[in-house]
């Protein structure tokens, strides 16, 4: 959440700062600002709303400074406003901050008693005043930054510039991600390493307690003890933000259509189950129970994978929401217990917290992440990269498919290791997944036709049974995220236990059905909805749709597959439906209100 971008160069950095903020818009924000050093003084420009509004402010009086920091703010302490926007200033200093300062009230009172004059309602403003206090007492900017890092409680990433050091950019990280890079044009700093594209070919990932000193000559990293250190480097894809979105109007639509390529990449990298097992230091023959922990879309992937581990590996499995799990009381861990955490960004604060709890209890942790240099990837006992590539749209699509594909492979690998029958057969079927997703994408015109009929709805219901129940919840989440239509996903068998009271002719109901062992049960639930004049959108294979054609208002066909593949394929029309409904409502599909791609605070 929020985004930091900073630059030091030989030319004015304001255009680069604006471009950097655009690259971080997906993280979610409600205001934006920049600060540069101008002829020995600090110039600050801020605006409420989108980066476009900030760009207009900057264009009216372009700063000429060659070192600067920029920030997109997602409001926590204080409403969205220019005075609450970052960067924040104390005499001679400006900072941009991501995260939460938990002891800001005590610090604010103490600093006010010493003469600090606060202008905002934010927790972040204590940072420049703390630095100012230390520097006024004779500390260097570097030492002041380290002292501040030790005094703050919470999670944070800080970028700072100082009038005393007009040719230095400083940063500090604890809990919130930061990456630095250096290229021919100078140094750069960002919350997301991919935002460095075009400015640096490699990103160095700061670890907790690290600080960075960036000049026009290079980058120096220091650990908490102040010792110079080297850190992991990642290659930065130069094409991430250079590409033209055509023929797609939005990142989200492009990412939906990239899913066959993502699946092919995963199945090409992990050709056989043993390829996955080689990446995790766990012998599944000795695993007695699996706990899958995640948030949001990743949680629904975990909920589906729970079924796969029980079906294919015959291992008891449970799934937990990270934000709840990390604060629960626990029974003593079982011998052979295993945890699997799932996060697209690898920086999800609640998932990191849950992982710390499990590791403290002696439970090994396997991580599935898309950002291989992330905190979760570094701290897990074993990491399996998702290989989805950069996902810019806030609403996760191709990362969800990547999670499901990797989890399916891992469940089959666990089953093979435990000598379960039929694993080779299911692995062979998994190889067909990319073609099935391609076929589902070809049905987009039908999805558009349905979206045109339902996009004015005030509420929607999604239902599914068995492995399609998590898909129903994920479909409802996608619609909520980008169309702002209230939507809920229910287990179809639970309709009679309350949710059926919501059925009326004005509420579209998306029913996921599939030929197979649960079809008759699902069909019965669909007919119960029809008997109450429900407006039914069926999503299923051709045979199941034909059997229910007499009660459906609309139908969306997906290829027929086994229970391993059907839920993955069935997510495609739900993603497209959410996208086209939001588009028809004239909404910002890639940057929905109030949401952030990477939730780095609790």
What does this structure look like?
- Helix 9 runs parallel beside helix 13 (398-417) and helix 17 runs parallel beside helix 20.
- This protein is an alpha/beta fold.
- A hairpin with a 2-residue loop joins strand 7 and strand 8 (165-174).
- Helices cover 36% and strands 24% of the residues.
- The longest helix is centred in the last third of the chain and has 20 residues, at 398-417.
Task: Determine the fraction of residues in helical runs and give it as a percent range.
Answer: 25-40%
User: What structural category arises from helix and sheet content?
Assistant: alpha/beta
Tally of helical segments: 20
Q: How do the strands of the widest beta sheet line up side by side?
A: 3-2-4-1-10-9-11-15
What are the SSEs and their pairings?
Layout (H helix, E strand, L loop, with lengths): L2 E7 L4 H10 L7 E8 L2 E8 L2 H10 L6 E7 L14 E3 L2 E9 L2 H10 L12 H11 L4 H11 L2 E9 L2 E10 L4 E5 L2 E5 L11 E4 L5 E4 L4 E4 L5 E2 L3 E3 L15 H7 L1 H11 L3 H5 L11 E6 L1 H17 L4 E5 H4 L11 E7 L5 H12 L4 E5 L5 H5 L2 E4 L12 H20 L5 H8 L2 H9 L2 H11 L4 E6 L3 H16 L2 E6 L16 E5 L6 H12 L4 E6 L1 H6 L6 E4 L8 H19 L18
Parallel strand pairs: 16-17, 16-18, 18-19, 19-20, 21-22, 21-23, 23-24, 24-25
Antiparallel strand pairs: 1-4, 1-10, 2-3, 2-4, 5-6, 6-7, 7-8, 8-12, 9-10, 9-11, 11-15, 12-13, 13-14
